[in-house]
Specification:
This protein has 127 residues and is α+β, with helices and mostly antiparallel strands. 17% of the residues lie in helices and 38% in strands. The strands form 2 sheets. Strands 5, 6, 7, 8 and 9 form a 5-stranded mixed β-sheet that branches. It has a 4-stranded mixed β-sheet with strand order 1-4-3-2, with helices on one face.
Amino acid sequence: MSETTVNVRYMVDDVDSAVEWYTKHLGFSLLSNHAPAFADVRRGALRLLLSGPLSSAGRPMPDGERPSPGGWNRIHLVVDDLAVEVERLRAAGVRFRNDVVTGPGGSQILLIDPSGNIVELFQPAAR
């Protein structure tokens, strides 16, 4: 396994919709597409595994619970100008979970992908 790539799996409801959203709005590039089961996209060192209900990762657990999208864990993407990104994404109709929040480390906002997974955009504070 490459030590320069970080792999994160997101469960999604619709693989093609997820591919379109991540490539169109967040600058990911498509590596492979095996919809409706699975696709993977890359942005820098991040490889995002988009796993649909028909993927092996979507199979029920022994107790019958099915893996599903959503939750509060998220990928964290650093941007140079959060205000510009928010304006661009709002104009494209991307859904947001909140408004920009600013703290001592910088500013952030949460986006919602088509399956309900959270993506954080973060602009570090000026030093």
